[in-house]
Amino acid sequence: MSNSSIPVIDMSPLMTRCVEGQGEAASETQELVSVLSSAVASHGIFAIVGHGIPQDLMTTALEATKFALEKGGPAEIECWAEHEAKARIVGSDGGVPSFSAAGAENVGCFYGNANAPKELVAKFTVFPPHWDSNPTLLKANVWPITSAGQTLRRPLEQYFAKVQCASDALHRGLSECLGRPRTFIEESLTPHTDGALRAMRYQHKEEGSEEMAPAMAAHKDLNTTTLLCSDAPGLQFQPRGSEDWVDVIVPAGALIVNLGQFFEIWTGGAWRATPHRVIKAGQHGRTSLAFFSNTGIARSSDGSTPKDRRIEPIGGLSSDSDADGETSAWSGIQTAVVGEARKSIAWPAFYFERVADLASRQQANIEGVQAGRGGA
Ligand SMILES: O=C(O)CCC(=O)C(=O)O
């Protein structure tokens, strides 16, 4: 399609398991796997259509997010951050909060830039809705008990169900691209097959503001895939082997897919996680829904540690055989220790390690601000 800066792939042959009574057509699926293989081995970012999420649900979920998280909107007026802090005293695992106010998180700071500019993005994280009715789990969603909270809840829960299904289908296709059986990703990560959804509202640029700093700093995601839907442009990616930033342009209704670092590990760097960032939102702000596959990590209320799965290179694909035939040394994925990289990780132990590291950087950043040293 011409109105796109990245490949656009029709997922419908893989979505049939989500539609009762339909089987997959082998020839169409083969063709899809071949198109997908080219997309993942080049820049690691592509768009999907035929993903099974109705356009009106995408629009409603985006609008509900914009309304709830807008500057001066219900989340601020109803003090969702305080509500969240109180709810977390009981039954919290100390991990990612449900609500995070604009400026509270700073991706630039997380990734080592102590003076990274403030990121004015309010975020509401939805954990797998089935956690809420499971008393054996430590964590449940903290939905504000206000009309705005409930107005946000319904479309985000509906969107979660659909996007989890699209993510599962995509994983079946990507397993085949890796030269493995269709269940490879699911079986490699079970029981950590749920994702987490972050609904985000980027504040609009103040009139006269010339600031060029990104609204969200450059980073790679620590998971399999991230499925993104937004109401305005702003996302940029760095093509393989380039320092340039390219605007992501996709047709209406398409979801953007970023490959995460698990694929770097599985392929020894032959596929790479997409470096991406978000530039400052224009006068109307920006809303996005980011579904991070495999990061909804359930923790049991008995305090036991979640079972670890090892993510490690699989044979057959390596950095010596990337898409362009180029040899690129892959040093592994970075850890909390500067200069240290790992070529395999235990999941979710590595996730908890990173969350703890990010929390301590965030704290240091807050203390820096309080001491008048700048930062977020
Ligand atoms: O809002 C977007 O489009 C991207 C969000 C993102 O990269 C993230 O939350 O990690």
Automatic annotation (TrEMBL):
Region: Disordered, residue numbers: 297-327
Non-haem dioxygenase N-terminal domain sequence ranges: 6-66
Residue ranges constituting the Isopenicillin N synthase-like Fe(2+) 2OG dioxygenase domain according to the UniProt record: 209-294
Pfam family membership, one: 2OG-FeII_Oxy
PANTHER family to which the protein is assigned, alphabetical: 2-OXOGLUTARATE (2OG) AND FE(II)-DEPENDENT OXYGENASE SUPERFAMILY PROTEIN-RELATED
Name used for this protein in its record: Fe2OG dioxygenase domain-containing protein
Species assigned in the record: Polarella glacialis (Dinoflagellate)
